[in-house]
């Protein structure tokens, strides 16, 4: 260097940038993609086993509930005691299975949109077990448990369920209408 040469400051940032560390699996996402992004097709394929797609996206409680519902329906249908309800369960099981696949794909897409920061997307709220109580849900679980316990422990017949099961959607409908009217009145 001569005495006449000027020292030109570097325009580069003097602070060292932190290197991007790939996830522990060794997988390096393509440049510009968030490693937390979820694959929508993979979520759908995993949901062919009910609940697994929801678990993949991060909705653990919902995934376990979906697995429990599908397993319970299959167990009830395999038992064969409620022959009069078989058409209802037979129609509901494929509907629930397809709903499960669509729900997992939709949740993965919404998750990805939320990662990008899309303002108009609001993630659906998953229920939180134990943080909030539900009187109606608690009463339904108590009644259902008491009915099943009376059958398994004391041998009471469940034949009456075949005749009275249509009362359940009627009661749920009445509750929903009452809740809607109550919400409108409180506004």
Description:
This protein is mainly alpha-helical. The chain has two domains: 86 residues, no CATH class; 56 residues, no CATH class. The chain is built from seven helices and no strands. Helix 1 runs antiparallel to helix 4 and helix 3 packs antiparallel against helix 4. The termini are far apart. About 3% of the residues have low confidence.
Based on the model shown, name its key terms.
7 helices
Topology, element by element:
Elements: H1 40-46, H2 52-57, H3 60-79, H4 86-116, H5 135-154, H6 159-164, H7 167-186
Helix pairs in contact: 1-4, 3-4
SSE pattern: HHHHHHH
Estimated share of beta-strand residues:
under 5%
Rg to the nearest angstrom?
A: 27 Å
| Overall morphology | globular
The tally of domains stands at 2
**How large is the count of helical segments?**
7
Number of strands: 0
Low-confidence stretches: 127-131
Q: What is the CA–CA distance across the termini?
A: 80 Å
Assign the structural class, choosing from mainly alpha, mainly beta, alpha/beta, alpha+beta, or little secondary structure.
mainly alpha
Mean pLDDT over the full residue set: 76
Helix percent band? 55-70%
Q: Biggest β-sheet, characterized?
A: none
